[in-house]
Amino acid sequence: MDNTEGQIFGINGPVVKVKGSDSFEMQEMVYVGDEELIGEVIGVTSDTTVVQVYEETTGLKKGEKVVGTGGPLSITLAPGILSDIFDGIERPLKEIRGISGSFIERGVKVNNIDEEKKWKVQFKMSAGDYVTAGDVIGVTQETSLIEHRIMIPPNVKGKLDWIAPDGDYTIADVIAKVKYDDEIIDITMKQRWPIKQARPYSKRQPISKPLVTGQRVMDAMFPLAKGGTAAIPGGFGTGKTMNQHQLAKWCDADIIVYIGCGERGNEMTQVLDEFSELIDPKSNRPLLDRTVLIANTSNMPVAAREASIYTGVTIAEYYRDMGYDVALMADSTSRWAEALREISGRLEEMPAEEGFPAYLASRLSAFYERAGYVTNLNGTEGSVSIIGAVSPQGGDFSEPVTQNTKRFIRCFWALDKSLAYARHYPAIQWLNSYSEYIDDLTDWYAKNVSHDFIAKRNKIMAILQEESSLMEIVKLIGADVLPDSQKATLEVARIIRVGFLQQNAFHADDTYVPLEKQNKMMDIILLFDKRIRECVEKGIVLSKVSESGIADDIIRIKYSIGNENIDAPFHELARKINETFDNLVYNHES
Amino acid sequence: MAIEYMGLNNIQGPLAVIDGVSDAFYEEMVTVTLDDGTKRIGRVIEIAGDKAVIQVFEGTSNLSLTNTKTKFMGEPMRLPLSKEMLGRTLDGVGRPIDGLGEYFADEVCDVNGQPINPVSREYPNNFIQTGISSIDCLATLIRGQKLPIFSGDGMPHDDLAVQIARQAKVVDADDENGDKFAIVFAAMGVKHDVANYFKKSFEESGVLGKVVMFLNLSNDPVVERIITPRCALTAAEYLAFKHNMHVLVILTDMTSYAEALREVSSSKGEIPSRKGFPGYLYSDLASLYERAGIIKDAKGSVTQVPILTMPNDDITHPVPDLTGYITEGQIVLGRDLHLKGVYPPVSILPSLSRLMKDGIGKGFTREDHPDLSNQLFAAYSKVEDAKSLASVIGEDELSDMDKKYIAFGRAFDEKFLSQGKNENRSIEETLDLGWQLLGMLPKSELDRVSDEMLEKYYKPAE
């Protein structure tokens, strides 16, 4: 064996110091101790190597051996990833349950992905074809929803010397041989890829399409683009996880990678249960068929928490390479940052703000930059969109993780405690949130939804903005003394808040609202706005408008009008609004 | 055979350092014997070459560099477990202190436990009726949940915890396991009288035989506190997953626990994060709270009600803050309600139960429960707005609608929140009471309730 080998010298939590060899490489994956716990080299000095261990270190002894693997921490990419649940270093939790029961034991040895299962492969190329990295040589139906495209790994090119006939193969079987410079390379369905290194692509594309989520406050007010990055910060109980779940359920990506990073075990169970029961409306198949879950719950080892984020994004890039739109949800990136802080503290590094290491910002930016809309090596287009939840301490957005995240994302959905207390969900505070994608997406909305979609959105934002400055006055002297024109603004803003921004995730129709309906809802609200202002001009008392109950009809649109065949009911409602106001004007004038 | 090491090299706060150790492993237990024959236990918390850093649970007073013999036990901290623990009182590291002698161990387990595989978890959705309106209706407790009480000094969190423990029952009729319940009580740094109060209350309600008490009182060694909740949860897991019992774990006071952790951290010379607490406070708290739940391979459950006192009533203090991020909701007690004489002073707006959405409504409690609780929250938050306006312009100047809200808020505090310490309301009573209060508001204000529910349950007050 020419593998590097050293001996444990010191142990402090997940950090192990190793002596006896000076040839460990930075970020090399190592096996630690007699139980062969998985670890990674994070520091090398002339006499000591520092290793972080991805499992609990209880029971490790000085002098036990540490063996290098010669390569960085890598994961297996192959069919069989989807609809499964893995831990932070891609060990399948279902398999682990089979081995160690209800609790996770240390040092469990399992294959990352089932190597026995046979996949029915159809080949798309034949011997003699020239292939380069990323080329699709065959396909297999990974789940009922997703076709897995078997690609030539990124570092291989040459002439197909041999290719297997269509049939059933495991991921370990050789299915093709590529010849380059007299060297023959075996191709299987599995690839290994180091998680901290971004997978290559051919070219970045400009952002141009929205990631449609069916959530009004997101789609209409603060849209996220495919290939974009967003953050959801909020104190506890403001609904970060709930929003992430809603996105994972309804956004129009092909593949969802959901990372539970340092969060609750029950939440992962919930996603697992709920997603296998929930049916995707477009395909009538369970949503779990397009989802992969990475779970490092808050009581699982801290070092693996750091890895879980990279594992997730590597899987996302792998499916992007096949030409899919992938959305990655990381809940929560703060726990990841805290894992960095914990390891950094144990290494006795000089801390920057609040004990976080100085490299926090660069790590965050490296992670978010792995999002993007790209042309792949094989010419297809694909995207990775990243949505990271942030859990600021004390709900205070000025803390380092939120602040540093803000610098690298372009869509900010700020959750607000007082909205959550009032059970206004999603508790996205419209005044603190922003999306820099609006300009990029204006054309798309104009072409695909309505030519004035963004104009209407801006108008609604302006009303909300005005409301907030009026509320300053109302807080001091009450609403009664305001002039009617301002009272009208408050009324319209109320309708927007309750009828449009608030959305009921537990209602069969309201949980997902198509853009078409969102557009029509904005039309109706703006119609009401126009008519109520007419009344104000003519001097009609506003109480007459509220007596008519028309505002409540608008607020109830979300329940009273379904998601399909919406033209007629919206038309009818518009007629009713016009009729009500016409009557008011008529009565007033006669 | 284990070797004994003579003397120590260094003593710092609760930590002792021994040199020349060849065979220790991380988190190994040690016993330190003093010259006078008294024994203390400790744990290896760091190994650096030949040095082992030991955390001595009973503290290091009277230890000197020469008067000790240290023995490495060759195993991590373990707790003997048995059904005979029920009804017993143990100290903070699990040794009997009720004078009834040792109990016969059926099994011995590592107190650190192991993380539950998310795949083996059963998602909790069994409603627990506590008989307390504010909790049952608005922050419902679910079996297998971890729902802390955020309180402050001088507030009646102990009374509330006792009332929950006494009244909690599962309404589910076809659960043949329903009567197999147990309570594990862990006291960390609480006063003698508080511990006695709990004991007396358990005695009075006749459940003492079902309770395991772990006591680390305020004058007991600080470091021992770090082990106390781990022992308690190990016992709870054993009862729940080996004997299929439904275990309610009360941990009090988590703030003292976190402070003990800070003390050890600072004597180790670690780099502090917020307010001097160690950077791993989150992971450490999570390793306790996450031990609540239900697993597929057993019929029992572990439900946690940790109690913590917020220093200076500050909910953004690291302990309540990090707790809130881990637990599935929180019940927050409000000083203003307490001063007004409302018992239990549950401040409903910041209170929350994350699991309630799946354990209430049709088939669990009653069909109107989700809408009703939503509406009560929304209405109460308007009461707060009206109150803050009234404090500026005076109540007389308020609009009619705001006046209605003020009246609603008053009635809500008096009738809905307030109840006797022995008053046990059924969920139907609680929900009906909620509707009765909503009757004080006009129908048009109730925008969180579906038309169907309004039709069936809404009756305007005379």
List the SSEs and their pairings:
The complex is a heterodimer of chains A (590) and B (462).
Chain A: E1 5-12, E2 15-19, E3 28-32, E4 37-44, E5 49-53, E6 65-72, E7 74-77, E8 85-86, H1 93-100, E9 119-123, E10 130-131, E11 136-141, E12 147-151, E13 158-163, E14 167-169, E15 176-180, E16 183-187, E17 191-194, E18 203-204, H2 216-221, E19 229-233, H3 240-250, E20 255-261, H4 265-277, E21 291-296, H5 302-321, E22 325-331, H6 333-346, H7 360-368, E23 372-375, E24 381-390, H8 400-408, E25 411-412, H9 417-421, E26 434-435, H10 438-448, H11 453-477, H12 484-501, H13 515-538, H14 542-547, H15 550-555, H16 557-560, H17 567-589
Parallel strand pairs in A: 8-21, 19-24, 19-25, 20-21, 20-22, 22-24
Antiparallel strand pairs in A: 1-2, 1-6, 2-5, 3-4, 3-6, 4-5, 7-17, 9-11, 9-14, 10-13, 11-12, 13-15, 15-16, 18-23, 23-24, 25-26
Helix pairs in contact in A: 5-6, 7-8, 11-12, 11-13, 12-13, 13-17
Chain B: E1 4-6, E2 10-12, E3 15-18, E4 28-34, E5 39-48, E6 51-56, E7 68-76, E8 78-81, E9 89-91, E10 107-110, E11 121-122, E12 127-129, H1 133-138, E13 141-142, E14 149-151, H2 157-167, E15 169-170, E16 181-190, H3 192-204, E17 211-217, H4 228-242, E18 246-252, H5 254-267, H6 281-289, E19 294-295, E20 301-309, H7 318-326, E21 329-332, H8 335-339, E22 352-353, H9 369-393, H10 400-417, H11 427-438, H12 451-457
Parallel strand pairs in B: 9-17, 14-20, 14-21, 16-17, 16-18, 18-20
Antiparallel strand pairs in B: 1-7, 2-3, 3-6, 4-5, 4-7, 5-6, 8-10, 11-19, 12-13, 12-15, 21-22
Helix pairs in contact in B: 6-7, 9-10, 9-11, 10-11
